[in-house]
Automatic annotation (TrEMBL):
This is ABC1-domain-containing protein. CDD domains: ABC1_ADCK3-like. InterPro entries: ABC1_dom (IPR004147), Kinase-like_dom_sf (IPR011009), UbiB_kinase (IPR050154). Belongs to the protein kinase superfamily. ADCK protein kinase family. It holds the Pfam family ABC1. Residues 25-284 form the ABC1 atypical kinase-like domain. It comes from the Eukaryota.
Length: 382
C-alpha cells in the first residue's frame, strides 16, 4: 500500500493536487519511530551492539532526515575521520510482515487465476496474477536486505562513472552518495550525507535561486539518466519518486533498494521502440516488439501493425478527436484483441513503473515533460 501510494503521489493528473500532496508524505515523511527506538534498532544490527555502534559513529541525530515505509534516515558522523554520514535504519519485523503478506497474496492470486473470466490475462495482456506476485516478491524481498541496496548503489555509481568515446562520464550532471559497504549490513545502510532538495519542493528551489531554465535541464538530465540505465547500463532503479531524485544542483539519486536488470535484447528493443515512436515508424515498431520479446507466439502481426499505424495517425492528426462513437466502440474491440497478443515480462512492468514515477517527478520541474521527447536528444550517446 505504501508503494502504491508513492506511485500515485507522483501523478497529479490522477487524483488532484490535494490528494497528491497528502500522499506525497509516503515518499519520505511516514510517521517515524523515536530517535531512541532507531538507535536501539541500530544497536541490534551490530554484533557488538551499542558498544560497537558508538565505537564507529558519533553525533547521531535523533531527528530523522526522512522516514519511509521500510526505514528512516538519521544524520551522524564517523568517529574515525569526522565525515558526515546518513544512516538508514530498517523498521523492525519486516521479513515477518513480508512472509505473512506474500503468503496471503499468493493465495488470492491463485484464486483469481482460476476464475473462468480471467482468460490468462491481466489488463488485457497475457500474464497471470500468480506470476506478477511471484515477480514482485523476488524484487521486494531484496529491498529489505540493505546489503543488496548497497551493492545496487555501488553498481549504479560505477555505471555512470564510466568514461569512453560512446558513453561519457555523468559526473558533471549526476551523482550518488558514497556507500560505506564495510559498515552496512542487512538492517543498516551507511552512506555519505549529501545536502539536497527534492525536485518537487518549489519553495526550496526558489530559495536556492534555481532558475526555470535550470529546472528544464534537470528534467532533461533525469530523462538522460534513465535512457542510459535502460539502454546502455542494462540496470536501473525502479523507484524514482521525488524522495529519491534530488538536486544539489546536480541530480543526486538515492535509494536503490528496488533495482532491476535487462538483457541486451530487452535494452536494444527499448531503444528501438523509442526511436520508432519518434519516427512514427510502424515496421520498426513491430521489429522492436519482437526484439523485446513482448509478443505471444501466435500474435497476428498484421493486426498489430494495423493498430500501431492507427495509433500513430491519431497521435499526429488533428482529426483524432473527430472519431465517431461507432468507430470508438470498434476501436476498443480491436484494442482488446491486439492487447491479447502481448505478454509482459516482469522487467518491463518495472520499466513502466519507473517511467510513470519519473514522469510525475519531472513534471514538477518541466510541466511539458515527456520521457521520450526529453530523452531523444541523448540517443546519440547510446
Amino acid at each position: 500500500y505504501f508503494k502504491m501510494g508513492q506511485i500515485v503521489s507522483c501523478r497529479k493528473g490522477l487524483l488532484g493536487e490535494e490528494w497528491v500532496n497528502s500522499l506525497a508524505k509516503l515518499q519520505d515523511r511516514v510517521p517515524a519511530r523515536s530517535g531512541q527506538d532507531a538507535l536501539d534498532l541500530a544497536y541490534s544490527a551490530f554484533e557488538g551492539g551499542e558498544e560497537e555502534f558508538h565505537r564507529i559513529f558519533t553525533d547521531f541525530d535523533s531527528s530523522p532526515l526522512a522516514a519511509a515505509s521500510l526505514g528512516q534516515v538519521h544524520r551522524a558522523m564517523l568517529r574515525e575521520n569526522g565525515n558526515e554520514i546518513a544512516i538508514k535504519v530498517q523498521r523492525p519485523n519486516l521479513r515477518l510482515i513480508y512472509d505473512q503478506d506474500f503468503k496471503l497474496l499468493t493465495k488470492v492470486a491463485k484464486l483469481i487465476d482460476k476464475l473462468p473470466s480471467n482468460n490468462k490475462n491481466v489488463g488485457g495482456i497475457e500474464s497471470s496474477w500468480s506470476k506478477i506476485i511471484s515477480d514482485a516478491e523476488m524484487i521486494l524481498y531484496r529491498e529489505i536486505d540493505y546489503r543488496d541496496e548497497a551493492s545496487n548503489a555501488v553498481r549504479f555509481a560505477e555505471n555512470f562513472a564510466r568514461n569512453n568515446e560512446t558513453l561519457p562520464s555523468a559526473a558533471d550532471w549526476l551523482r550518488t552518495p558514497y556507500i560505506y559497504t564495510e559498515l552496512s549490513n542487512e538492517q543498516i545502510l551507511v552512506q555519505e550525507y549529501v545536502p539536497s532538495i527534492k525536485v518537487t519542493d518549489k519553495a526550496k528551489l526558489d530559495a536556492a535561486n534555481v532558475t526555470q531554465e535550470e529546472r528544464f535541464k534537470l528534467a532533461d538530465d533525469l530523462a538522460r539518466a534513465y535512457l542510459r540505465q535502460f539502454c546502455s547500463n542494462l540496470f536501473f532503479s525502479t523507484d524514482p519518486h521525488p524522495g529519491t531524485c534530488i538536486i544539489m544542483p546536480r541530480i543526486v539519486m538515492y535509494d536503490f533498494g528496488q533495482a532491476a536488470t535487462l538483457t541486451q535484447n530487452q535494452a536494444d528493443g527499448i531503444l528501438e521502440i523509442i526511436e520508432a515512436i519518434i519516427d512514427t515508424d510502424v515496421d520498426r515498431s513491430i521489429d522492436a516488439f519482437l526484439m523485446m520479446g513482448v509478443l505471444v507466439d501466435d500474435a497476428d502481426l498484421n493486426q498489430i501493425r494495423t493498430k500501431v499505424a492507427e495509433n500513430y495517425r491519431k497521435a499526429t492528426s488533428s482529426e483524432a478527436s473527430n472519431v465517431t462513437t461507432t468507430n470508438n466502440t470498434e476501436s476498443k474491440g480491436s484494442d482488446a484483441q491486439v492487447m491479447s497478443y502481448f505478454t509482459l515480462p516482469a522487467e518491463y512492468a518495472f520499466v513502466a513503473r519507473a517511467i510513470t514515477q519519473l514522469d510525475g517527478s519531472c513534471k514538477s520541474l518541466d510541466p511539458e515533460f515527456d520521457f521520450i521527447s526529453n530523452a531523444a536528444p541523448f540517443i546519440v550517446e547510446i
